[in-house]
Amino acid sequence: MIVTDEDFIRGRTTEVVLHDGTRVHLRPIVPEDKDRLRAAFERLSPESRYRRFMSPMDELSDEMLAHLTEIDYVDHFAWAALAMDEPGEPGVGVARYVRLEDQPAVAEAAVTVVDDFQGRGLGTFLLDALGAVALENGIKTFSGYVLDGNKAIREVLEQVGVRFRYDSPGLVKVEVDLPARAEELRGSRAYEVLRAIARGEGPNLLRWGAFWTPSGPAAPAPGA
Ligand SMILES: CC(C)(COP(=O)(O)OP(=O)(O)OC[C@H]1O[C@@H](n2cnc3c(N)ncnc32)[C@H](O)[C@@H]1OP(=O)(O)O)[C@@H](O)C(=O)NCCC(=O)NCCS
């Protein structure tokens, strides 16, 4: 049973404005998010569900919901993005990592954005924010598998410096070198903000859209 530290969550809760003006609350997922997660899953298209879980799924079981929301924030961490401009602030995006037991510097990572919020830079932002937390917790590599035809995640991964390896037909093994990505961003305001958020020292309001360029949302801000 995970007991959530309210100060830990409050310190890591930030209002984020994406490049098109969309406002989301970013915060670590909490056990009370089960209904939100279930609703977000129902809002996903069958194709997005398949791409995330790599099998056809109609619903999240109670066991899965517990696994996905009752986390220790060190070996298993998840950011939730909540739509600030919709009643009840529903969940519209999640990025999570789970550390591998036999390789503690490696974690499996996954990111999902509900279909009507895709293409606004949220997936890339969530993955960079997740990388910042992972680095704080001693993780150096994100690894995982994506479907070969999943162009959206491949675009997102390319922006955060992925290595692609083809393992089996239809499936691509991916790895992100987190220190290399941090090095690329180092010195930029974007990097400093992501690090501060990961440490619970971030701003209450982040105009992430100001960092966005067509070639990569997390490019250094001018003059940074
Ligand atoms: C993959 C996913 C998280 C991307 O989220 P997103 O919020 O749409 O991503 P972004 O808005 O940051 O887009 C990043 C890039 O991908 C591109 N992209 C987004 N959706 C795309 C699509 N359907 N087809 C092709 N490219 C796409 C964007 O154009 C953008 O590139 P650009 O900045 O050069 O224009 C989202 O599509 C998703 O949840 N898919 C279903 C679950 C999944 O596949 N997860 C990955 C496996 S764990």
Overview of the molecule:
There is one protein chain. The protein has 224 residues and is an alpha+beta fold. The chain has one domain: 3-Layer(aba) Sandwich (Aminopeptidase). It has 8 helices and 9 strands. A 9-stranded mixed β-sheet has the order 7-8-6-5-4-3-2-1-9, sandwiched between helices. Helix 5 packs across helix 8. The C terminus is likely disordered.
Keywords:
Aminopeptidase; alpha+beta; single chain; binds coenzyme A; globular; 33% helix; nine-stranded mixed β-sheet
Described by strand count, sense and barrel closure, the largest sheet is: 9 strands, mixed
CATH superfamily: Gcn5-related N-acetyltransferase (GNAT)
**Could you tell me the strand content as a percent range?**
25-35%
Report how far the terminal alpha carbons are from each other: 43 Å
Q: How many E-type strands?
A: 9
Identify every distinct bound molecule in the structure, by name, code or SMILES. Answer: coenzyme A
Principal-axes geometry comes out as globular
Instruction: Indicate the percent of residues in helices.
Output: 25-40%
| Rg measurement, Å | 16 Å
What's the structural domain tally? 1
